[in-house]
Amino acid sequence: MSDTVLKNAVTRDVVTLKSPHPTRKRNALVFTTEIPAGAAGSPLHRHSHLTGTLEVLEGCVTFQVGKTERVLAAGASMSVRSKTLHGFCDASNSPAVLRRTATPGVGFEQFLRGMQASAEAGRANAAGMPRDPRRLPRLLLDTNLHFSGLPMGLQRVLFSAFAALAPDTTH
Protein backbone atom coordinates (compact mmCIF):
# COMPACT_ATOMS: atom_id res chain seq x y z
CA MET A 1 0.00 0.00 0.00
CA SER A 2 1.34 3.45 -0.88
CA ASP A 3 0.91 6.89 0.61
CA THR A 4 -2.15 8.91 -0.42
CA VAL A 5 -1.79 12.60 -1.29
CA LEU A 6 -4.75 14.94 -0.74
CA LYS A 7 -4.31 18.41 -2.28
CA ASN A 8 -6.82 21.00 -1.12
CA ALA A 9 -7.46 23.39 -4.02
CA VAL A 10 -8.91 26.06 -1.70
CA THR A 11 -6.51 26.17 1.28
CA ARG A 12 -3.53 24.91 -0.77
CA ASP A 13 -2.69 22.47 2.05
CA VAL A 14 -1.21 19.16 0.95
CA VAL A 15 -1.90 16.21 3.25
CA THR A 16 -0.02 12.95 2.72
CA LEU A 17 -1.62 9.98 4.46
CA LYS A 18 1.19 7.60 5.35
CA SER A 19 0.58 3.91 4.81
CA PRO A 20 -0.62 1.69 6.23
CA HIS A 21 -3.89 3.51 6.76
CA PRO A 22 -5.79 2.78 9.98
CA THR A 23 -8.27 -0.06 9.59
CA ARG A 24 -9.65 -0.25 13.12
CA LYS A 25 -10.78 2.42 15.55
CA ARG A 26 -7.76 2.06 17.82
CA ASN A 27 -5.17 2.41 15.04
CA ALA A 28 -3.36 5.71 14.60
CA LEU A 29 -3.30 7.77 11.43
CA VAL A 30 0.13 9.19 10.59
CA PHE A 31 0.22 11.97 8.02
CA THR A 32 2.16 15.02 6.95
CA THR A 33 0.65 18.40 6.22
CA GLU A 34 2.33 20.98 4.02
CA ILE A 35 0.86 24.40 4.74
CA PRO A 36 1.61 27.56 2.78
CA ALA A 37 3.15 30.65 4.36
CA GLY A 38 0.55 32.65 6.27
CA ALA A 39 -2.02 29.83 6.16
CA ALA A 40 -4.89 29.89 8.62
CA GLY A 41 -4.22 26.24 9.51
CA SER A 42 -6.69 24.76 11.94
CA PRO A 43 -9.03 26.94 14.04
CA LEU A 44 -9.42 26.33 17.77
CA HIS A 45 -11.24 23.05 18.32
CA ARG A 46 -11.23 19.90 20.43
CA HIS A 47 -11.83 16.20 19.86
CA SER A 48 -13.91 14.21 22.33
CA HIS A 49 -12.09 10.90 21.70
CA LEU A 50 -8.92 11.70 19.77
CA THR A 51 -5.37 12.32 20.95
CA GLY A 52 -2.68 13.67 18.69
CA THR A 53 0.88 14.80 18.22
CA LEU A 54 2.26 17.44 15.91
CA GLU A 55 5.94 17.69 14.97
CA VAL A 56 7.31 20.53 12.84
CA LEU A 57 9.57 19.09 10.12
CA GLU A 58 10.18 22.34 8.22
CA GLY A 59 9.39 26.01 8.86
CA CYS A 60 7.52 27.11 11.97
CA VAL A 61 3.92 27.23 13.18
CA THR A 62 2.07 29.01 15.93
CA PHE A 63 0.38 26.34 18.04
CA GLN A 64 -2.20 27.01 20.72
CA VAL A 65 -3.17 24.53 23.44
CA GLY A 66 -5.77 25.92 25.82
CA LYS A 67 -4.79 29.53 26.46
CA THR A 68 -1.07 28.91 25.85
CA GLU A 69 0.36 29.91 22.48
CA ARG A 70 3.82 28.83 21.32
CA VAL A 71 5.81 29.19 18.13
CA LEU A 72 7.24 25.82 17.19
CA ALA A 73 10.22 25.61 14.84
CA ALA A 74 11.58 22.59 12.96
CA GLY A 75 12.30 19.74 15.38
CA ALA A 76 9.78 20.86 18.02
CA SER A 77 6.63 18.89 18.81
CA MET A 78 3.44 19.08 20.88
CA SER A 79 0.99 16.48 22.12
CA VAL A 80 -2.72 17.07 22.65
CA ARG A 81 -5.04 14.96 24.80
CA SER A 82 -8.68 14.43 23.96
CA LYS A 83 -11.05 17.26 24.96
CA THR A 84 -8.18 19.80 24.93
CA LEU A 85 -8.78 23.01 23.00
CA HIS A 86 -6.09 23.44 20.34
CA GLY A 87 -5.31 24.88 16.91
CA PHE A 88 -2.41 26.05 14.75
CA CYS A 89 -1.51 28.42 11.95
CA ASP A 90 1.53 29.34 9.90
CA ALA A 91 2.01 33.02 10.74
CA SER A 92 5.44 33.08 9.09
CA ASN A 93 6.59 34.10 5.62
CA SER A 94 7.66 30.51 4.82
CA PRO A 95 5.71 27.31 4.24
CA ALA A 96 5.75 24.64 6.95
CA VAL A 97 5.64 20.85 6.95
CA LEU A 98 4.17 18.99 9.93
CA ARG A 99 4.10 15.31 10.83
CA ARG A 100 0.90 14.54 12.68
CA THR A 101 -0.50 11.50 14.42
CA ALA A 102 -4.18 11.08 15.31
CA THR A 103 -5.45 8.21 17.46
CA PRO A 104 -7.94 6.79 16.66
CA GLY A 105 -7.28 7.59 13.05
CA VAL A 106 -10.15 6.08 11.05
CA GLY A 107 -12.61 8.96 11.57
CA PHE A 108 -9.90 11.57 11.13
CA GLU A 109 -8.91 10.13 7.77
CA GLN A 110 -12.56 10.37 6.66
CA PHE A 111 -12.61 14.02 7.79
CA LEU A 112 -9.46 14.88 5.80
CA ARG A 113 -10.77 13.11 2.70
CA GLY A 114 -14.16 14.81 3.02
CA MET A 115 -12.67 18.30 3.34
CA GLN A 116 -10.45 17.71 0.29
CA ALA A 117 -13.36 16.30 -1.73
CA SER A 118 -15.53 19.35 -0.94
CA ALA A 119 -12.77 21.71 -2.07
CA GLU A 120 -12.05 19.71 -5.23
CA ALA A 121 -15.75 19.69 -6.16
CA GLY A 122 -16.00 23.47 -5.68
CA ARG A 123 -18.28 23.03 -2.65
CA ALA A 124 -16.02 24.78 -0.10
CA ASN A 125 -15.89 28.41 0.99
CA ALA A 126 -12.73 30.55 0.98
CA ALA A 127 -11.69 29.06 4.36
CA GLY A 128 -11.96 25.52 2.97
CA MET A 129 -15.15 24.63 4.88
CA PRO A 130 -17.98 22.86 3.03
CA ARG A 131 -20.67 25.33 1.96
CA ASP A 132 -23.49 22.85 2.58
CA PRO A 133 -24.42 23.26 6.27
CA ARG A 134 -25.36 19.57 6.37
CA ARG A 135 -22.02 18.22 5.12
CA LEU A 136 -19.71 19.87 7.65
CA PRO A 137 -21.54 18.40 10.68
CA ARG A 138 -21.26 14.90 9.15
CA LEU A 139 -17.50 15.36 8.78
CA LEU A 140 -17.19 16.76 12.30
CA LEU A 141 -19.09 13.80 13.73
CA ASP A 142 -16.74 11.40 11.86
CA THR A 143 -13.78 12.76 13.82
CA ASN A 144 -15.49 13.81 17.07
CA LEU A 145 -14.37 17.39 16.38
CA HIS A 146 -15.96 20.32 18.22
CA PHE A 147 -15.36 24.05 17.98
CA SER A 148 -14.70 26.30 20.96
CA GLY A 149 -17.57 28.28 22.43
CA LEU A 150 -20.47 25.82 22.67
CA PRO A 151 -20.52 22.79 24.99
CA MET A 152 -19.46 19.58 23.22
CA GLY A 153 -22.72 17.78 24.06
CA LEU A 154 -24.81 20.55 22.52
CA GLN A 155 -22.63 20.55 19.40
CA ARG A 156 -23.09 16.77 19.04
CA VAL A 157 -26.88 17.19 19.16
CA LEU A 158 -26.82 20.03 16.61
CA PHE A 159 -24.34 18.24 14.32
CA SER A 160 -26.42 15.05 14.45
CA ALA A 161 -29.60 16.94 13.54
CA PHE A 162 -27.97 18.65 10.53
CA ALA A 163 -26.16 15.47 9.46
CA ALA A 164 -29.45 13.55 9.49
CA LEU A 165 -30.70 15.96 6.82
CA ALA A 166 -27.61 15.46 4.67
CA PRO A 167 -27.63 13.33 1.56
CA ASP A 168 -25.32 10.32 1.51
CA THR A 169 -21.85 11.76 2.18
CA THR A 170 -19.76 8.79 1.16
CA HIS A 171 -16.22 10.14 1.16
UniProtKB/TrEMBL annotation:
Pfam families: Cupin_2. It comes from the Bacteria. SUPFAM superfamilies: RmlC-like cupins. Residues 33-97 form the Cupin type-2 domain. InterPro entries: Cupin_2, RmlC-like_jellyroll, RmlC_Cupin_sf. This is Cupin domain-containing protein. It comes from Fertoeibacter niger. The lineage of its organism: Bacteria, Pseudomonadati, Pseudomonadota, Alphaproteobacteria, Rhodobacterales.
